[in-house]
Multidrug export protein MepA (Lentibacillus amyloliquefaciens), 449 residues
Amino acid sequence: MSIAEQRLLSQSVTKSFFQYLLPTLVGMMLMSANIVIDGIFVGNGIGPVALASVNVAVPVWSILISISMLIGIGGGTLYSMATGEGNNDRAKQTFTISMAFTTIVMTVIGLIGYIGAEPLSLLFGANDETLSYTVDYLEIIFMWAPIVGWEAALSIFVRNDGSPQLAMTGLIVSAVLNIILNYWMIFILNMEVTGAALASVIATAAGLMVYTIHFLKKDAGLKFIRPKWNKNDMLMIGKLGFPNFLAEAGTGLFVIGYNIALSYYAGTTGLAAFSVINYLHTFMFLAFIGIGTSIQPMISFYYGAKKYEQIKDTVKIAEITGLALGVAFLAIGWLAPGSLVSIFGVETEAIRQLAIKGITIFFIGYLFMGINFIYMTYYQSIAYIKPSIGITLFRGFILLIAALVILPLLFGTTGIWLALPAAEGMTAIFLLLFARRGVMNRQWQEQGY
């Protein structure tokens, strides 16, 4: 019996939830810390133009991670369902083809992205001041794309196989090494933005090496076997992972949309202010993804094992946790916005004031974000994909784009900061009014996958 089976079949939902949540939450926030640390070192060691340049390049991380999560979450969901059913051969086959597929896709993307780094930089919003820095950053990231993909996908499978503590350990190692390398490469070697990019990818590779320890455990369910390329399995992996792909892709769209809007309404000052908020947002956004990542193995396993009441209990405790986290983030944003801005070495008063104003408005969105990710993950984890895709499209694409177009016309830069809270809030209110009752009163039926 694998680690995941032993834990989920013998423990209460609450105990299992926090065993998954705490290391996953710490791990996700440390993963975001890798990006935030880049911003702190770049802002303090190179300057605000370089900081804005790295922010322009951030969507590339979202693209690479979104594709890795499409495969990893899709494969991980199938893996947990198969484990819940006791079908270990299917579970191993799912893991093998998921990692092989990740390798192929990331290699192709890395080659194309490296060759087209400059036009991609312009597409993502680089201007004459930021272009050279952005290209330098992107070339390094694309060169290491397979490593980024393996790290993201394997961490999901390690967590699904009952080792969230090891997944957290890998991210701790990555975050600590990233701090050391950023200081060394930026302040000692004077490698500027190239050094920040190298620090991130080398630290990511170190985290990947930590995850491989899982294969040495005697009760580990993850095993590589000879892959059997089954079209239906590949389609199902893509189908189940597609909501996460959209969520991560939506993050890239969010950055591009905000960059374009702020560049138009506030110029380089707006871009620099948003770079500060976006680094903070990355940290907090991944915390909510952490809640979703925690409940996915549980719900998928319970679904495969036909333990339907445990699924409802998992959703309830996740809702409480998501709301508490949102309140905590909002309180930090309202009580100490100036301190948050100061972390990034912003000295220009215009940038500082615009960022402070943005934080106090933008952070309202965190009250609603947890609900949206919980229900997106719930539907995805039981292989009911259409509602999951619908939630992702509305909150991250349709409503956000509409808000970025309409609200600035009415309220100027204030409207730009309001766009995300408006999109998240409308989605969450709809889910609580119309979807929650159906989830809690659901009449479960067998669904083939």
